[in-house]
Amino acid sequence: MKTEEFLQEHKYYRRLVESATDYVVAVNRNYQIIMANELFKNEFGMQPNDYCYKVWKNRNKKCEGCLVEKTFRDGWGHWNVENVTMKGGRVANMLIKAIPVKNERGETVYVVERATDITERQHIQENIDNIVGNLEDMLANRLEGLQKSEEKYRTIFERSRDAIILTDPTGKIIEINQAAVNMLWYDTQKEVLALKSAAEFFEDKVFSKFQKKVSKEGFVEEFETRFVGKKGRRFDAVITSNVTVDVTGQITGYVLIIRDISKRKFAKYQIEQRNIRLDILNAISKTVSSSLNLDKMLNGAINKILEFLEFDSVRIYLLDDKKKVLNLTAYKGPSAKLMTKPFMKYRKLGDGLLGQTLLDGKTKIVHNPFRIEDRYDESIVEEGLHSTAYIPLVSKGESVGVMALSSYTPFMFYYEYVEFLTAIGNQIGVAVDNANLYKNINEGYQKLKDAQEQIVQTEKLASLGKLAATIAHEINNPLAAVLTYIRLMIKLKNRNKFSSERLEDISRYLATMESETARCGEIVKNLLAFSRQSTITIKRHKIADIIDKTLSLIAHDLEIKGIRLRRNIAPDLPKVQCDFHQIQQALLNLMYNASDAMVEGGTLTVAAHRKAGAEKFLDVMVSDTGCGIAEEDKEKIFDPFFTTKEEGKNVGLGLSVVYGIITRHNGTIELESEPGKGSTFKIRLPRG
C-alpha cells in the first residue's frame, strides 16, 4: 500500500496531527515530508516533497544520528533534545520524538516527528524569579490553549475505531472510549470505570510485564496478548501504549490503544491449517499414485493417514464385482477380536452406517456411539471406539467403497475437516479405480498374449504343412542318390566285383552317400528346430545366421518356382536382441508370401544393414518383384484373418503373426508396395 493511500485510509491520524499543539510532521523513507500540521507550516514553511533536514534544519544532507533513519531501521521510537532555528532567527530548544506508524502487516510506512518547544520551560526554570509577576497571565494563556487542544483530542478519543483506555500509575482506569466498551462487551463506560484495574483485561497476569515494559521504554507498539472481556470472553489483541508524565518527568499514567486482531489471527490460522491439509493431501496423493498394485496402494494410504491425522483405526471396504457387498480390503488399528466378527469383514449395501454410506454416497459421522442406533453399536462400544467417520470412496461420480476412520478418544468432525477427509476419499477412490483398471488391462493383455502365442503356433503348424511338400522333394533327391549307390554296391558285391581295382569307385560312392545323408540330417535338424514350441527367449544373435537358416528351409521351393535369390547382407553387422526361432518364423512367413506373389518367377531379395541415424537398430528387408499390394489394402495387411489370396489357400494370419513377433521384440515393420512392381517389408530390430 502506498503511503498516500495509507494516510487516506487512516484519516483520524491526520486529524490527530492537525489538532496537536506541538510541531508535527510525517516523513517517508526518502526523508520527504508527506504531511505537517499548520503550526509547523506557519513556522518553517513547506513545499511538496521537501526534505525534512532542509526545511527544518536548513541542511543539505540528513542529520547525523537521524531519528527518522533509526526508526525506519529498527521499527522503534526514538527521542532527542535539539536546538532548532525558528522563523525570525530565534533558537528554540526542542524535545523531538520520532514515532513509527505501521500497517496491519507490521511494516513501518512513515515516521511521525513531534517537536515540543521546551525553551519556555527551561527559561522559566532558570529565570523563575524574573517571571513570577507574569506567571498568572502565562498560565491563563496556556490554560486556554490546553482547553482548545483538549476539545480536539476529546473528539478523536471518542470517535476512534480503536479502543483507548487511560489509566493512572497503578492501572486504575480513568477514562475509556466507547470503542473499548464495545470491544470488551460491557454495556456502559460507567460499568468499566467501576473495575479495580485494567489488569483484569489481561490474560494470565500479563499486565505487570506490560506495565514494566512501557514504564522502562516510555512507549511500546504491537504488544500482543490475550484480552478478557465481560463474562470471561476472550480475544486476541495488540496494544500500542505510552506513558504520561508531569513536568518533573514522573509517570502519571498510561495510554493504551487496543486493536482486536482475533479475525486476523483466525484467518492466519485457517491459512496455516489449509496449507497443512494441502501438504497432507499431496503426500497421500503421491502415495496412492505411486503404485497400481491395489494392496500396496491401500496399505500405503492407511499408513499416511495414521501418520498425519489423529485417528487410531482405519478400515477400507471395496465394492465387489456384483456391486452388492462391501468387502474389507485393507485395515490397521482395530483389535484382532473385533476383526474376527463377520460384520467387520463384509457388509451388504444399506446394512448399518457403513452400508448406508455406500448406498447414498454421503459421509456419516459418529461423535458418540452411545447416541446412535446401529445394530453393531455394542461391538463398537466394547472395542472402545468413540468417534468414527464413514467416508465414501468416489471415482467418476460413483462410490467404489467406504473408508472408516475411528479414534478411541472423542473427536469433533467440523465441516472443513469433513471436506478435507472427503477429498482424501476421492483421491483413494480414483486410485482404486485406476488399480482395478490396470488389473483388468493386465489380465486382458495376458489373455491376448496367450492368444497371440496360440496364433503363432497355429501359423507355425500351417507353415509346417506348407514345408512338408518342399521338404519331401528336398530330402527325396539325396535319398534317391544314396539309394542308387547302395543298389549299385549291392550289385557289385553280388557279381563279386569288390576288387582292389574298384576301391576308388566305391570310395567315391560312399563319399557321395555321406554328403547326401548329412544334407538330409541338416534339413531335418532345421525342421525340428523350427517346429519346436517354446516361450520367447531373448538372446544376442547374428542376423546373418537367422537369415541363412530360414533360406535353407525355402530354397527348394524357390528353385521349383524359378525364383532367383539375392542375398545382400552387410559385413560385420552387430548382433540383435531377439528370439532366434520367432524371428526365423517371421522371416519365413515374409519369404513364403513373397514366393506366392511371384507366380511366374522373379527375384527375392533379402538384405540386412545399418542405417545412418538409427545406430541402435538393425534393418532387415524382404523384397519381391511380384504382383504388389493395392493401396486400399495396405492399412489392413497386418489385421488378423485379412488376406488377398483365393479362398481356401490362406486364413490371413501370416502377416498378423509377423507383426506380433516384431512388436514383442520392441521392433517395427513397414510396408512399401506398388501394384505390378512388387513389395518390400522392412523390419527394424534393436541391437544387442
Q: Which regions are unreliable across 5 or more consecutive residues at pLDDT < 50?
A: none
Largest sheet: 6 strands, antiparallel
Number of helical stretches of at least 4 residues:
21
Q: Kindly state the number of beta strands.
A: 23
State the CATH architecture of the largest domain: 2-Layer Sandwich
Task: Report strand %.
Answer: 15-25%
Oligomeric state of this protein: single chain
Biggest sheet: strands side by side, in what order? 13-12-11-16-15-14
Helical proportion, percent range: 40-55%
Radius of gyration, taken over Cα atoms and rounded to an integer in Å: 50 Å
Level-1 CATH class name of the largest domain: Alpha Beta
User: What name does the CATH topology of the largest domain carry?
Assistant: Heat Shock Protein 90
Q: Structural class, from helix and strand content?
A: alpha+beta
* Overall pLDDT score: 79
Topology record:
Blueprint: H1 3-9, H2 11-19, E1 23-27, E2 33-36, H3 38-44, H4 52-57, H5 67-74, E3 78-85, E4 91-102, E5 108-117, H6 119-126, H7 135-159, E6 163-167, E7 173-176, H8 178-183, H9 189-193, H10 207-217, E8 219-228, E9 234-245, E10 251-260, H11 262-289, H12 294-308, E11 313-319, E12 325-332, H13 336-339, H14 342-345, E13 346-348, H15 352-360, E14 364-366, H16 377-383, E15 387-395, E16 398-407, H17 415-494, H18 503-531, E17 539-541, H19 543-560, E18 563-569, E19 576-578, H20 580-597, E20 602-609, E21 617-623, H21 654-664, E22 668-674, E23 678-686
Parallel strand pairs: 18-20
Antiparallel strand pairs: 1-2, 1-5, 3-4, 4-5, 6-7, 6-10, 8-9, 9-10, 11-12, 11-16, 12-13, 14-15, 15-16, 17-19, 20-21, 21-23, 22-23
Helix pairs in contact: 2-7, 11-12, 11-17, 12-17, 17-18, 17-19, 17-21, 19-20, 20-21
